[in-house]
Amino acid sequence: MPESELTSVPSGNSQLRLVFIGSHGVRAGWRLLIFTALLVAIRFALVFPLSKIIGNLGTDFSARNVIISEVAAFGIVLLATAVIGRFERRSLADYGLPFRFAFGKQFWTGALWGFVMLSVIVGMMAGSGAYSFGGLALSPANIIKYGLLWALAFLVVGFFEEFTFRGYIQYTLTTGMGFWPAAGITCVIFAGLHLGNPGENWMGAVEIVLIALFLCVALRRTGNLWFAIGWHMAFDWGESFFYSTPNSGIHATGHMLKATLMGSKWLSGGSVGPEASVFDLLVTLAGILLLAGIYPEAKYPAFSAAADTNPQPATEPFTPASSSTLIP
To answer: What is the pLDDT of residues 112-165, one digit of tens each?
Structure first.
């Protein structure tokens, strides 16, 4: 065999390196595996001290329980992301959470969208006889009290759920397979975990996939998670507190109205609430189209569908870190 052919044969070490290293450094799958292991390790390390501080929260879907549990969960995800970001030489902004935009225009625009979309859904339910507002379930003082508590609770829920599913995971999968295949995976996982909620069913889970897709469109077109966090907070707040319906099959403690759902489950959503109503399906589809029309430019980094090869810049250029800046 000629010498030139001998020298072109890849060594065993080179072949092994290709399994772990791509054009963006450590391949997306391995980085996600490391991230998952880090999450588990941090959670395991904090379980005992947190249980001593927090105590037994019980099973009530109360603002207090939601705030405490979601702050702890978000803190774990935030810490794991910050640690892995240190190795990758990226900031939280790279993973969709730029603090310079905190509670700015995008957040409040998202909150407005969330409450308006839910109001349209509930209005259609009421018009079809599937929802009744009833009377007030709280005194004026308690309306203010619980309204503020639930707003804070669902703000934390928005941070936790959006950053968990559309933060580091979405970003890293995007580097390996492109934005939309990555979004498909995160949407299905997001909806699948909701099936563990009491009263949730397959119809609700399907519509949660669609809601997650709407939030992925928001991420893609706005470039970060602030719109999605605001939307998530307002939609859940309106559902659980203001309109007092089940939220993914769970009734909140301290809701404003004595509301009732009735008639066909296709219209009312049954035990799941508005998220399983056909009206939610229609409004979310319309929301996706409207959002894409209002925000026509993609601002979130995009990559080629070829795993870890030939990155393609989005409308705003994105330069991935070299392999030396990723986890060794």
So the answer is: 999 999 999 999 999 999 999 999 999 999 999 999 999 999 999 999 999 999
Single out the residue of 25, 178, 139, 2 nearest to residue 90, CA to CA: 25
- At 68-87, the pLDDT tens digits run 999 999 999 999 999 999 99
Q: Which of 290, 308, 282, 313 is nearest to 127 (CA)?
A: 282
**For residues 243 and 115, what is the distance between their CA atoms, to the nearest angstrom?**
10
Give the per-residue SS3 of the chain: CCHHHHHHCCCHHHHHHHHHEECCEECHHHHHHHHHHHHHHHHHHHHHHHHHHHCCCCCCCCHHHHHHHHHHHHHHHHHHHHHHHHHHCCCCCCCCCCHHHCCCHHHHHHHHHHHHHHHHHHHHHHHCCCEECCCECCCHHHHHHHHHHHHHHHHHHHHHHHHHHHHHHHHHHHHHHCHHHHHHHHHHHHHHHHCCCCCCCHHHHHHHHHHHHHHHHHHHHHCCCHHHHHHHHHHHHHHHHHCCCCECCECCCCCCECCEECCCHHHHCCCCCHHHCHHHHHHHHHHHHHHHHHCCCCCCCCCCCCCCCCCCCCCCCCCCCCHHHCCC
- pTM of structure: 0.85
Q: What value does the CA radius of gyration of the chain take, rounded to a whole number of Å?
A: 22
User: Over the stretch 155-201, which tens digit does the pLDDT of each residue have?
Assistant: 999 999 999 999 999 999 998 889 999 999 999 999 888 777 776 67
Average pLDDT over residues 227-256: 95
User: Looking only at Cα atoms, what is the longest distance across the chain?
Assistant: 90
CA distance 214 to 219: 9
